[in-house]
Automatic annotation (TrEMBL):
This is Multicopper oxidase CueO. GO terms for molecular function: copper ion binding; oxidoreductase activity. InterPro entries: Cu-oxidase-like_N, Cu-oxidase_2nd, Cu-oxidase_C, Cu-oxidase_fam, Cu_oxidase_Cu_BS, Cupredoxin, TAT_signal. It comes from Bradyrhizobium betae. It catalyses: 4 Cu(+) + O2 + 4 H(+) = 4 Cu(2+) + 2 H2O.
Length: 500
């Protein structure tokens, strides 16, 4: 990244947006010329081999993201991120979560279809020194799921610091396909996160701009590795791409523009692979893809520039656009691949994957509308900036900020509904707990390619219609729905529903 700090500061000075100047200057201060590192691989825990009893310790520690520079960080049974836990459809898996931090936490099993009291949302707090032992019934098709902290008001900070990991559901249908599935060899989890580093140490951004945009960073990590390189076999490899960032949306493609094959969305395998040359991935979203490395050539996974900023007007918009130009550049490398063994035999992509029953839109008996709002329509950013606090800021859904003690929606258990969701100011990844849904329409038209499959998270701005099936009880605790830009969520862009 070429960055002329002086001209940027001078330019921003002219338009008089001090807060923005320092914000973006910090953001671009990372040293881009660091050495490559081997892709770190979260340890795999196969729940069956552990008798379906797994232990996780929520702990504070230090992580050398850059050699010799120990950053304070959080992790599950490790210093940053957590183990990948493989679970089997049909099993009940007890996970004993011990909180060794000196603050509250929760562990939410994002994407798991389980009753609300097991879901680990903001109501299921694990206080310092205590243990929570949910027994999770695994009753859904193979999929890549994502566990992470969900303690209200601190989700953003805890996840940014490292509290996230993967849950890999497997089933017979998936195994019968003989997809690449040797963990860490030809089946690689890739948790993509942007983090802020200053002088080689991770810092957790704070402040007004952070709250508006969501916490971002000047360095892209894959499984906690900056400048990561993965050695892969010279054949078909499965990547489980997970956007574990707090706020950033990636637009991923390969440096040689090769085609790759999207095989699974958040809800699991698609009915057939979809060939793509790029794929967007928003916070909370996961996509499994097959990539053919049989030509033996090194290649990198890249992302297009970060452009999902709140829409602003006036001088602040100028500062933003100016910053965007500087930050944009050619995009960034996420992860480099070094195939081993030279030229290999070209691989065959399966033609069909799984048959999944389709939900029937004519069964939907209720329609609900949700608008994700940043609460400053008309008044512009200027008024907000004046306040300069880190709290509030008008993050709401349908005009109301999140309230732990208010149930926003009551849904009949077993029902199928249409949820029409739209967002203001910028794109928002909308997530619903305890369900899977399909995209029925986008902006009044057909869904886009990327809307395929069953999902639990979807990027919205213009109205999107979701066909949602509710089959998990929420009597003891409610389920959440929210923006997965974690700072929006922490600041109120969240609601809760019961199924009764
Ligand atoms: Cu991944 Cu409610 O969150
Ligand atoms: Cu969730
Ligand atoms: Cu949002």
């Amino acid at each position: 990244m070429k960055f002329n700090r002086r001209s940027f500061l001078a330019g921003a000075g002219v338009i008089g947006a001090g807060a923005f100047t320092s914000y973006y200057a910090d953001w671009t201060a990372a040293d881009a010329a660091a050495e490559r590192q081997p892709l770190r691989m979260p340890p795999l825990i196969d729940a069956r081999k552990e008798g379906n009893a797994v232990a996780l310790h929520v702990q504070a520690g230090t992580t050398e993201f850059f050699p010799g520079r120990a950053s304070a960080s959080l992790g599950y049974s490790g210093s940053y991120l957590g183990p990948s836990i493989r679970v089997y459809q049909g099993d009940d898996v007890e996970i004993a979560v011990t909180n060794t931090l000196n603050e509250d936490t929760t562990v939410h099993w994002h994407g798991l279809l389980i009753p609300a009291e097991l879901d680990g949302g903001p109501h299921r707090i694990i206080t310092a020194g205590n243990v929570w032992r949910p027994a999770l019934p695994i009753r859904q098709p193979a999929a890549t799921l994502f566990y992470h902290s969900h303690v209200h008001g601190r989700t953003g900070v805890q996840v940014y610091s490292g509290l996230a990991g993967l849950l890999l559901v497997t089933d017979e249908a998936e195994r019968a396909l003989a997809l690449p599935s040797e963990y860490g060899v030809d089946d690689l989890p890739v948790v993509i996160q942007d983090r802020q580093f200053a002088d080689g140490l991770m810092v957790v951004p704070q402040g007004m701009m952070t709250m508006m945009q969501g916490r971002r960073g000047n360095t892209i990590l894959s499984n906690g590795t900056p400048n990561a390189t993965a050695r892969v076999p010279n054949r078909l490899v499965r990547l489980r791409l997970v956007n574990g960032s707090n706020a950033r949306i990636y637009d991923l493609s390969f440096s040689d523009n090769r085609t790759f094959h999207w095989i699974a969305s958040e809800g699991g395998l698609l009915d057939r692979p979809i060939s793509v040359s790029s794929l967007t991935l928003a916070p909370g979203e996961r996509a499994e893809v097959l990539v053919d490395f049989s030509n033996g050539q090194a290649v990198s996974l890249k992302t297009a520039p970060d452009t999902n900023m709140p829409m602003m007007t006036g001088p602040l918009a100028k500062a933003r656009n100016f910053a965007k130009e500087i930050l944009g550049g050619q995009g960034e490398t996420v992860l480099q691949f070094d195939p081993v063994g030279g030229h290999g035999a070209p691989s065959k992509i399966p033609e069909r994957l799984v048959e999944r029953p389709r939900a029937d839109p004519s069964k939907a008996n209720t329609r609900r509308r949700f608008v994700l709002n940043m609460g400053m329509g008309g008044m512009g950013m200027g008024g907000m900036m004046g306040g300069g606090t880190d709290s509030g800021g008008g993050m709401v859904i349908n005009g109301r900020p999140f309230d732990m003690n208010r149930i926003d929606e009551k849904v009949r258990l077993g029902d199928t509904e249409i949820w029409e969701v739209s967002g203001e100011m910028m794109s928002h990844p909308f997530h619903i707990h305890g369900v899977q849904f399909e995209v029925l329409s986008r902006n009044g038209g057909k869904p886009i390619l990327r809307d395929a499959g069953t999902r639990d998270t979807v990027v919205i701005r213009a109205p999107v219609e979701l066909l949602v099936h509710f089959n998990q009880p929420a009597e003891i605790a409610p389920f959440m729905y929210h923006c997965h830009i974690l700072e929006h969520e922490d600041n109120g862009m969240m609601g809760q529903f019961r199924t009764i």
